[in-house]
């Protein structure tokens, strides 16, 4: 596979940009190769600057559930562009997307748009602290909620991938107000919440973890979490930046039938443009400035192009049967993957919820950060490089999710299965 142009660009990028990338996990450090520079994308494919074509299972880390450059999204952005790119003032498009989000998510009565998932989650915990007057935040080992100081404690995604315990620059004063406990550990959860209730503002959770690889909630875990937080007056925040509009049109909260107090969104609701959002009960959201005293702001919040892209995306997603078809396609693909691993005796635990999945290179079940860490990241790295050479673009980390989109054809999935089989054969020999 030709990579000369990407290599030259990577060298030049590092002269101007730390690590040559604008987000660490893109540097591919964990999978033992340099990143490819992508020139364009269409449908289920991405194309790099050397002209290589790849079937894309990264999907920009989740947003591209319709595939790249879906006609309805391109048309909406193009139409909005004709009227300008940014006004710094309210625009009709914000109401259109807000109405779709509020109608889709059972627990969201009011929503505020921001420009990233990190802005959404950092705003949500500030709001929870303002609403409760309490300081502490409870999160779960291996979950990632963006790079705000409070979250860089035993975090997932790039923090796990790069094997860093947290991050320099995060003051001890901040870290001491973040408590991180094992995902799916109902005993630790009950103990932590009951003992610390008087100073715990919120619990923030990925209702399906995607940032230690995909780890579903244990049966009853979310129900117990909801019961305890309600009983103790602790704000429950669902970080649905990945799962929102991924698992169902109502996100994980509809998928599992649990109503959080606040929900954070991102990725899909921007249709590929920068959008984050947080929302929830009006009683809590009323505290957000300018209605209330909890301050939060953003120059490009509610950007008209991003609102148009998000609205066009959600309008396609709400079409009857969309998720049934997508999730069935993903389930069939995952079943074939698992069958190949068994046939070639490659130790893989495949965790899937809907159209998000991770094949962990371990024979042990993966139900939390500790068991996810049992996966053989080096073996994943060689699998990644082999698949890339065969035209299959996977997440450059064992601890991320792979996504199937509307645009993935049976031919794409069959090709990915054939390349997987070829990779497994090589691993066996
Ligand atoms: P952003 O600030 O990256 O838009 O969103 C942060 C975030 C918050 N919550 C969840 C559950 C998330 O998964 C994320 C970001 N996801 C990672 C990949 N798993 C972004 C990829 C990257 O960091 O480059």
CATH architecture tag of the largest domain: 3-Layer(aba) Sandwich
Distance between the termini: 23 Å
User: How large is the count of helical segments?
Assistant: 15
The tally of beta strands, per DSSP, is: 14
Helix content: 25-40%
Shape field: globular
Strand content bin: 5-15%
Hetero compounds: ligand KE4
What's the structural domain tally?
A: 2
CATH homologous superfamily classification of the largest domain: Type I PLP-dependent aspartate aminotransferase-like (Major domain)
CATH topology of the largest domain: Aspartate Aminotransferase, domain 2
Oligomeric state of the chains in view:
single chain
Rg to the nearest angstrom? 21 Å
Largest sheet: 7 strands, mixed
- The topology string of helices and strands comes to HEEEHHEHEHHEHEHEHEEHHHEEHHEEH
Low-confidence stretches: none
> Based on helices, strands and strand pairing, what is the structural class?
alpha/beta
Query: What is the overall pLDDT average?
Result: 96
Strand order of the biggest β-sheet: 4-10-9-8-7-5-6
CATH class of the largest domain: Alpha Beta
